[in-house]
Design a protein that fits this description.
Length: about 425
Amino acid sequence: MDKIKITIITVAVSLAAFGQGNTTKQETVKYEGLANTPPMGWNSWNTFETQIDEKLVKETADYMVTSGMKEAGYSYIVLDDGWMAKERDANGDLVADPIKFPSGMKALVEYVHAKGLKFGLYNCAGTKTCAGYPGTRGFEYQDARFYASLDIDFLKYDWCNTEGINAKEAYTTMSNALKTAGKPILFNMCEWGDNEPWKWGKPIANSWRISGDIYPCYECEFSHGTWSSWGFFKIAEMRKDIRQFSGPDHWNDFDMLEVGNGMTYHEDKSHFALWCLLASPLIAGNDLRKMTLQTQQILTNKELIAINQDVLGIQGFKYSEADGIAVWVKPLQNGDWAISFFNKSSTLKEVNFNWNQNPIKDNIFNLSTSFEDTKYTIRDVWNGKELKTTATIFKAKINSHDVITLRLTKMKK
Ligand code: GLA
């Protein structure tokens, strides 16, 4: 057989495998390397829903810089549902709502870019978005070209009004469309975990939501009738067992943050610590223009963010829960560990953690430590203080719904 024939056969075989949705070896479609650590930014939905406009975006971008959030690592400003006009134009192109965005979307993207930040938009794989604006179904390549022409950097792609379509195929089509349009755009799938996207999302997307929407409460279920939103601890518990599917450039997304959206200071700290330990994207969902100093300090805590952004990119795990105290752990680079004690009860609790009796083993990522052999220094990352070492029992009081987060670093022998 000559060379040309062999090439044709190889191409045909690989196309056939791809077309059948072969799960053993999937072609990488997405733009790679856009999210080597969990994406950080801000999204309009949790606070503003569809009440968004260009003044809000500009002010948020300004605050992102002046509040220290940009410096702490936040870069994306993402407009969620509600940015579009109700209809496409005569060419079938999406149109930004001319009342909310009188200067046009392109000018807004330029404004945000000029601040050294990145810009994101939202749409849906269905016929309409969840809030009833034009969906992308049937317009995938056209919409991808539109986003590329706007020079955006991030697309959140939702899953409302998708009756009869296959999630993996729909998301693959959009990922292909983005790639073909030629502008690197981080692709964030948002189908709420319904079709286990962690099992097939890696070649397609840089991150994917793994649950229904978050609600600003500790561990409540908030019913909307046919669907529910979830307190942050509920989401973490729901998806603690899919950690092997998350990692650099393919993150389990635990949803936008509710820090600063009505929970207590202690609950906000716990929520942020948990998202850092889970290596979730950190997408603030509060009104940056009105945030309190406490909220700002939580969101910009550099030592917590370093745990989230750790280069190993390992989603942490639940170590234990007893007498109202839950312990979660995350392996970090250079043999460090992050460990958080959460007081889930309604009363003050005392922690007595005897390191020697609590070896840590991460069976999924094959990492472990026995504190008898190796001693660690302990840093309290909420207070920026060195504590005693793991040679002595760790004792501390924790308020109801508060958290203590420690970073352990191996001592030199
Ligand atoms: C879904 C998503 C939310 C938000 C809304 C917008 O519920 O899960 O994060 O994007 O749609 O309508």
